[in-house]
Amino acid sequence: MNFLSDTVVVIPAWNEEKTIKGIIHQIRATTTYDIIVVDDASTDHTAEEAMVAGAHVLPLAFNLGAWVATQTGIRYAVKKRYKYLITMDADGQHLPTAIPGLLKPLWDGAADVVIGSCVKRGSRARMLAWSFFRRLTGLDINDLTSGFKAYNLQALLLLATNQASLLEYQDIGVLLLLRRAKMRIMEVEVPMCPRESGSSKIFGSWIKVGQYMLLNIILSLSHATFFFPRSNNSAGEIE
Amino acid sequence: MKPLMPYQWTTAILGVLIAGAIFLLVRRDSLRSRYSVWWLLVAIVIVIVGFFPEIFNRIGLYLGVHYPPILIMTLSVGFVLVKILAMDLERSLQERKIRRLTQRLAILEGLLQERSPDEKHQPDDAINNA
Questions:
Q1: pLDDT value at position B117?
Q2: Which of A24, A67, A80, B56 could, after both became Cys, cross-link A170 (CB 3.0–4.6 A)?
């Protein structure tokens, strides 16, 4: 591993043997950052493929979902004293060329968390769900479900805590936690590719969609801020 | 038809049986001592109510409940709900611990791999599945 780097890319992966290698090579070709793949107890050769491609692999003993896998990478990064962390999906949607754009607001001290957002990728149903959750949570963020994010150390220390370990998904719950801690969240428009293989792990079936919606509605309502004014900042910062 | 035995007997026998079962479980260390406090209290209440069911008649009258057995049912359901909620809280706490522990295990494996990088390209199924 490159111990001089203060930035690390974390990729939670579950059965992504077809795409993981290509993504690691792409990241290697565009950056010098360390790459950590958190293998969420894949039943295929994701871990081996990632190792061969040169990533550092953290193997979870059993499947715990994308968020807990991501948090594993966050805890590891905090332990190894990295200052910045980027999360990327393992399905090839996120382009490593967009990483510098995500990191810049962190370097400039303009934000604690930067979301790589691509509103265009959303289907009608997804747009409707985003708009619904935006209203419900008061979060002024266009792409609520993006897994392409960059965090500074302050945000990482918060997300590594016990408090974040019971979250089920990596999007709304995490954003609500960040907002409660008054972290500054910013959105940066990035291009995204269509998924290279497989279907969404979260939206794979209607039952999963229903479960996702229900859990996030409960979470959103329990963190509701109806009585607090929303930020009017056009950059989407949340003070 | 005249009943074969007074109804107190039935409730008393049931109470003693349930309390006995709880006591036996606690005695065998099948129940963690922390939980045994609750269950021993339950056992004591069951025995008392079993032997003296008229207590509830009096409490029922005092509280304006016309049919006292329903008071027992309502209170029981209430306590059961509280207990189930407490159990889910405990389960959530355990889930959190399991997740943190699993994460720590993965982190430690990662750190170990760093120290012995030669082994990382030879995943050994027997070791990994251990």
A1: 63
A2: A67
